[in-house]
Amino acid sequence: MTQPISYDVVVLGAGPVGENVADRARAGGLSAAVVESELVGGECSYWACMPSKALLRPVIARADARRVPGVRQAVQGPLDSAAVLAHRDEFASHWKDDGQVDWVRSIGADLYRGQGRLAGPRRVTVTGPDGTVTELTARHAVAVCTGSRAALPSLPGLADVAPWTSREATSADHVPGRLLVVGGGVVASEMATAWQALGSQVTVLERGSRLLGRMEPFAGELVAEALREAGAEVRTGVNVTAVARKDGTVTATIDEGTTLEGDEILFATGRAPRTDDIGLETVGLRPGSWLTTDDTLRVEGSDWLYAVGDVNHRALLTHQGKYQARIAGAAITARAQGVPLLETDRWGAHSATADHAAVPQVVFTDPEAASAGLTLAEAEEAGHRVRAVDFDLGGVAGAGLYADGYTGRARMVVDLDREVLLGVTFVGPGVGELIHSATVAVAGEVPVDRLWHAVPAYPTVSEVWLRLLEAYRG
Description:
The protein is an alpha/beta fold and about 475 residues long. It folds into 3 domains: about 5-45 and about 90-150 and about 275-355, FAD/NAD(P)-binding domain; about 160-270, FAD/NAD(P)-binding domain, CATH 3.50.50; about 365-474, 2-Layer Sandwich (Enolase-like, domain 1). It has helices at about 15-25, 40-45, 50-65, 80-90, 100-105, 165-170, 185-200, 215-230, 320-335, 355, 375-380, 395-400, 435-445, 450, 465-474; strands at about 5-10, 30-35, 110-115, 115-120, 125, 135-145, 150, 180, 200-205, 235, 240-245, 250-255, 260, 265, 270-275, 305, 360-365, 370-375, 385-390, 410-415, 420-430. Strands 1, 2, 3, 4, 5, 6 and 16 form a 7-stranded mixed beta sheet that branches. The longest helix is centred in the last third of the chain and has 19 residues, at about 320-335.
């Protein structure tokens, strides 16, 4: 082992979150080291956001085109699956990270490839691919940004089946004839949409009562209805109890003993933190656990350890992780500079308040489902006195122009005591581009009376804002 190398900040994990922590630290004048055991750029770049959306974009574009007279006739026939997969490969940079490595170096951070592990307070060891061990020390902070991985259930036969997880589902080089999808969340819904459109016969098996269980109920209902119309089978309220593979065919057994067959089976049943092999035990924390933080993203009970992104289980979304990284970077820099009082009040510069109140999310299914802030159920559970206002998106002039037979729904959840929005949900074609306006309204706590003066352009789908406000005002 060489002599320890000292930095102001050591970052474990070079995904978008770790990259942004390092960037903010460097912008604040601190030195930074970044440690990565796989590809620089992380899950989002190679196995999640980018490849999945590259798979889905042709699917959604074709669906939108088929809803427009004069274009519908020009887009008959199947998708060119080979071209779609090649397009996906481009967006995943062919699973090479040269460009991301260059970016890390361009901000002045040092990159260490290998398995990074805590080795006590402010100490990190990096075991390189050749077995060489390098010790790093952090004068101010170590940031754990190692993300999450797919969580597989304990099922008889699973180890022998070679199941797909989100990684295989976004990087597969062929279209399976039959795909079983276990789960009903975002990954399950998006991948069912993509592979059904690419030519698979998809069967979705969800143990809950609906898809997208963390969103407003109508979101999952509309997505399930569209999947069925596309030819997929969607079963809710079922549990997979065993799986097996024989002669290339996967068999899944569900509750009542019924068996279903597929060529591949995707388990999209949750996430687990990638903290099992990073030395947490050396600082009194449990390996494999989620790390609990305050709103500056500092691990509770520590004055030097930060957990940013998926590992803190606050909001498992790339954009929220990057937001947290900006907050953490600012907090680390301020503390390193001896700022006596950080801005940790509500919406302060060093407080990740949006994790609690204004998280936006888009599910890139057909139709899209997008939300910001709280659902009605979450707002009521939190003790707010609220009213939900719903509107049929198909009744908006811009929606009718966007697509023949436009089907969708909008809801805003109003805090009746403060007359501000706590949450907004849109479901329908193209609604992902509406959600930032909702995020601004929720995060900015814009009074309903003020929103009345934010006039939506006509004829756009955004006119739904006016319709929602009219319905609220009566």
